[in-house]
């Protein structure tokens, strides 16, 4: 029957043999990897020889000292190789000489002791080799300490387990040899445990090898295997502790000890079963093991440089498209759509890259999906969302998400703890891909960085618009000066016209026209100066304003037509501004429509809302132009003939009155502007509001 020493050393041989095979499979020929492979192989041979010796009883102290010295020498060479790049040449030469000389001295000491009779009988080691064994252990501890000390602080993470494992082996040997030197014989129990002690440090050496890519050792251990092994080990330790507690209860529990022990062990078993079947606990254990015992799958420096370069590449398209592309590259997605928060706090699709952008209804800011993304910052995965919605607070999958079968991930864009948008990424190029904690952490962090870029661009655009308005106001001052001169000339003409009349009827009409022009210019001057308007807001019939705007543009083709089935309603507004708003939209429709086309103005009601629709069959606009340019100040498609503020001013004034402007259009299919005034913006009867406005 094998002795305990044979089993111990056989276990050490099996552990180091497994490590040697893993290292050999991943070997790439680099010096550090070669030395580690040699040291692990030497440790395997050492443990195998001592297992054979313990089983067979053959092999004397000299042979033991020989394999012991070989094992120490190989570990010394490996540690010296790590120190070669950081230690001074003179010191390194001294370390190399000692590393080569001590194992030889150990062998010679054992040989002399055996020759002199110190190793006769059943001694495992000669007495003289105890002293050299102590020297070997102390020098090994010195090399471990120097390796850890001379490694930069950032690199200690990669070698700390190696130093811990080898330091433990050398410390155990020091204790073994020191004890033998003191009592002049080898403690057989300590000697038998030496093989198992070496086996226990193999996982520590493997972890360090995996953390050092410079050794060219692709050490890979299945995460599932590590999780299951850790679970079994943890369960075993738990059962040992519970058994010890149960034994204590039985031994010291008195007359009820048996009953209490049975209840305790049953409860401990139930608790163990609950823990083993806990999905959340398994997930947390998997993340913990991945973070602390495995290499990262990403080179974060390379990923971040590529991400930043994509966002900063202005030639790569608009920023929103670059954001989609940068996020998609991280997970190898085919494309995506970016949803952006608008001025009404709703989310709309504003950009797309390699993916179809659906014209879906806006997602309200108070929608459960938007609130979940903002509060949790989680990334939603389509498959899991549909199969296990309880993980996402039971949020229903939106219709716009369902009609996009290629949708895969929803990445929130959070800036200053506020959701400014989100990106819907399409399926990965590889077809299927399982994401883990590292993918989610990287994408989440990248999403926050992308959100800051978008917020910065919006701030720059707002600043640019403010500067443009400032320029516009400066220009207005020059216009006011010119208008003042014209007004003075027209006033003089009006005063002197009666003195030079030849045709009284003609002159009278001319005077009325000139006076009307003077009145209009005075009103324009007041508006340009930013003062109060000369005309007061009154309750206006929308039908009357529409008729006036249609009549004012009836001299151009296509001639606008008016359709008014009945009363529409009244709003409190300035007549001139409201008619100008309607006229601007009609004029734009005429500009975009051929002479044989049509421009129709329709009045109506939608339940309690008043509607004014202006529709044409002109060239139309695409969705990108409507979302990003139509209502953007000073952005015009008319070249030098337009200023780009008409549509913006029309929408802002309608909103000032409590209404809103909706636009639907398609290229080549015409455009429809719908001005909607809700019930709360309407008044029942005409009234004079001059007193109220003055107050």
TrEMBL record:
Pfam families from the UniProt entry: HATPase_c
Keyword field contains Transmembrane: yes
Gene Ontology MF terms in the entry: ATP binding; phosphorelay sensor kinase activity
Reaction(s) the record says it catalyses: ATP + protein L-histidine = ADP + protein N-phospho-L-histidine
Keyword annotations: ATP-binding, Kinase, Membrane, Nucleotide-binding, Phosphoprotein, Transferase, Transmembrane, Transmembrane helix, Two-component regulatory system
Catalytic EC class: transferase
Protein name: histidine kinase
Organism lineage: Bacteria, Pseudomonadati, Pseudomonadota, Gammaproteobacteria, Thiohalorhabdales
């Amino acid at each position: 029957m094998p002795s305990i020493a044979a089993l111990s050393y056989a276990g050490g041989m099996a552990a180091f043999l497994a490590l040697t095979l893993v290292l050999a499979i991943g070997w790439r020929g680099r010096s550090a990897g070669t030395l580690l492979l040699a040291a692990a192989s030497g440790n395997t041979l050492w443990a195998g020889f001592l297992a054979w010796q313990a089983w067979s009883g053959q092999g004397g102290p000299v042979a033991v000292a020989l394999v012991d010295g070989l094992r120490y020498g190989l570990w010394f060479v490996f540690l010296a190789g790590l120190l070669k790049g950081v230690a001074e040449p003179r010191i390194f030469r001294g370390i190399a000489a000692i590393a080569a000389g001590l194992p030889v001295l150990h062998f010679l000491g054992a040989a002399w002791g055996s020759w002199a009779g110190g190793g006769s009988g059943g001694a495992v080691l000669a007495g003289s080799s105890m002293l050299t064994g102590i020297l070997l252990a102390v020098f090994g501890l010195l090399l471990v300490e120097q390796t850890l000390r001379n490694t930069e602080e950032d690199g200690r993470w990669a070698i700390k387990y190696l130093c811990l494992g080898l330091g433990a082996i050398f410390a155990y040997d020091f204790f073994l040899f020191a004890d033998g030197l003191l009592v002049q014989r080898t403690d057989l129990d300590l000697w038998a445990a030496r093989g198992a002690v070496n086996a226990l440090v193999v996982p520590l050496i493997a972890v360090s090898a995996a953390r050092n890519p410079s050794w060219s050792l692709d050490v890979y251990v299945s995460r599932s295997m590590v999780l299951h092994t850790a679970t079994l080990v943890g369960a075993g330790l738990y059962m040992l502790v519970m058994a010890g507690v149960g034994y204590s209860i039985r031994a010291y529990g008195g007359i009820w000890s048996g009953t209490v022990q049975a209840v305790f062990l049953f409860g401990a078993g139930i608790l163990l079963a609950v823990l083993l079947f806990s999905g959340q606990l398994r997930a947390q254990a998997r993340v913990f093991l991945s973070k602390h015992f495995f290499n990262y799958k990403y080179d974060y420096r390379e990923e971040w440089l590529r991400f930043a370069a994509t966002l900063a590449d202005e030639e790569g398209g608009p920023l929103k498209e670059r954001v989609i592309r940068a996020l998609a590259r991280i997970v190898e997605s085919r494309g995506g759509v970016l949803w952006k928060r608008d001025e009404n706090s709703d989310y709309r699709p504003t950009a797309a890259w390699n993916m179809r952008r659906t014209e879906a209804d806006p997602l309200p800011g108070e929608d459960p999906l938007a609130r979940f993304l903002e509060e949790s910052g989680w990334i939603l995965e389509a498959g899991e969302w549909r199969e296990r919605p309880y993980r996402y607070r039971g949020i229903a999958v939106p219709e716009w998400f369902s009609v996009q079968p290629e949708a895969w991930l929803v990445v929130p864009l959070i800036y200053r703890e506020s959701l400014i948008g989100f990106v819907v990424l399409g399926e990965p190029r590889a077809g299927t891909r399982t994401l883990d904690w590292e993918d989610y952490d990287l994408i989440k962090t990248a999403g926050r960085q992308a959100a800051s870029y978008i917020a910065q661009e919006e701030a720059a655009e707002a600043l640019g618009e403010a500067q443009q308005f400032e320029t516009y106001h400066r220009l207005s001052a020059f216009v006011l000066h010119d208008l003042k001169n014209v007004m003075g000339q027209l006033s003089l003409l009006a005063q002197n016209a009666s003195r030079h009349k030849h045709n009284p009827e003609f002159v009278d009409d001319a005077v009325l026209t000139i006076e009307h022009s003077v009145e209009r210019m005075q009103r324009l001057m007041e508006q340009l100066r930013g003062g109060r308007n000369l005309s007061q807001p009154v309750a206006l019939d929308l039908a009357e304003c529409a008729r006036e705007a249609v009549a004012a543009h009836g001299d151009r083709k296509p001639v606008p037509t008016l359709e008014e089935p009945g009363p529409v309603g009244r709003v409190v507004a300035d007549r001139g501004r409201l008619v100008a708003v309607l006229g601007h939209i009609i004029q734009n429709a005429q500009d975009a429509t051929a002479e044989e086309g049509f421009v129709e103005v329709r009045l109506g009601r939608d339940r309690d809302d008043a509607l004014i629709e202006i529709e044409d069959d002109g060239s139309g606009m695409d969705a990108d132009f409507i979302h990003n340019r139509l209502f953007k100040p000073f952005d015009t498609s008319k070249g030098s003939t337009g200023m780009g503020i008409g549509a913006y001013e029309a929408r802002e004034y309608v909103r000032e009155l409590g209404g809103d402007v909706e636009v639907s259009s398609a290229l080549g299919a015409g455009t429809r502007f719908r001005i909607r005034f809700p019930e709360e913006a309407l008044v029942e009867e005409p009234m004079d509001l001059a007193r109220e406005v003055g107050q």
